[in-house]
Specification:
271 residues; mainly alpha; 2 domains; 8 helices; 0% strand
């Protein structure tokens, strides 16, 4: 009897243990499923928010491009195209000038040190080679001066002055064309505005009534050319002023370097 009771007790314990394990496993599976579902819902929500956030940005980019194209067409292709050409050609010349002026910039102190070293040793040919192998207007001016050392300091000074004028003209090359585009871009815009105003009054005359829709539409189309012309002129004017400041800086450097170069020649020739 005792053995039977012990056997039954053992079976009861095993049954309870198996039931607890099964229940725990079921709870774990349920928790895992719930967690996975929550993560999936969170990911879906984030994706929705991301799509919602990115959609307006894309729409804004598209709308801005579309708006620019629409305004260009509304302003009249015949009048907006010359303004666009002025902007493209003007910016092309600005880029060309920026590259040229940056290449024309020279470390004058280093160049003067090399020239003085060779001139003090009487090696004028080596000094000319240094100038020949150095880019920029300052080196070109020095070369012209060294090439006329045998004719005397007065001839050297005249050479520096005359060739300095040539280099200055090269620095200012194409600047007149940039200033031309600055002037004619708003002129095309104003001309398009005047023509648009005439067309608006023609529409009013044809309709026989001063309708706000006719007047507002014609005025808007007419003024768009002026807006684009003024924007083009402002962009080119800023670039033009930057180039002028760069040229002025180079010219000042050329003048200072020429004075230092003459001092070097005077000091070594008198020796």
């Amino acid at each position: 009897m005792k053995k039977v009771c012990a056997y039954l007790s053992i079976m009861l314990l095993l049954t309870v243990f198996v039931s607890n394990v099964a229940f725990a496993a079921g709870e774990g599976a349920t928790a895992t499923t719930t967690t996975e579902a929550t993560v999936s819902e969170t990911t879906a929500t984030q994706a929705t928010v991301s799509e919602t956030t990115e959609a307006p940005a894309e729409a804004t980019k598209t709308s801005f491009h579309q708006m620019l194209k629409t305004k260009y067409i509304e302003g009249g292709v015949g009048w907006m195209t010359p303004v666009l050409i002025c902007l493209i050609l003007g910016l092309g010349l600005v880029i060309e000038r920026i590259i040229y002026l940056n290449l024309a910039t020279t470390n004058t102190n280093k160049l003067l040190a090399k020239v003085e070293e060779n001139v003090s040793n009487g090696n004028y040919e080596e000094a000319k080679n240094v100038c020949r192998n150095t880019r920029g207007p300052v080196a070109s001016i020095f070369y012209q001066g060294l090439d006329r050392v045998e004719n005397g300091l007065e001839d050297v000074e005249k050479s520096l002055t005359s060739y300095g004028g040539v280099q200055m003209a090269r620095l200012e090359s194409n600047m007149i064309w940039i200033s031309l585009f600055i002037a004619i871009a708003p002129s095309f815009g104003f001309l398009g505005t005047v023509v648009g105003m005439v067309q608006a009054f023609d529409d009013i005359e044809s309709a026989g009534d001063i309708s706000p829709t006719i007047v507002a539409g014609g005025m808007k189309v007419a003024l768009l050319t002026t807006v684009f012309g003024l924007i083009t002129a402002l962009i080119l004017q800023i670039c033009y002023n930057y180039l002028l400041s760069k040229i002025e800086s180079l010219v000042t450097t050329m003048e200072d370097a020429s004075i230092s170069f003459m001092d070097i020649l005077v000091k070594n020739i008198k020796k």
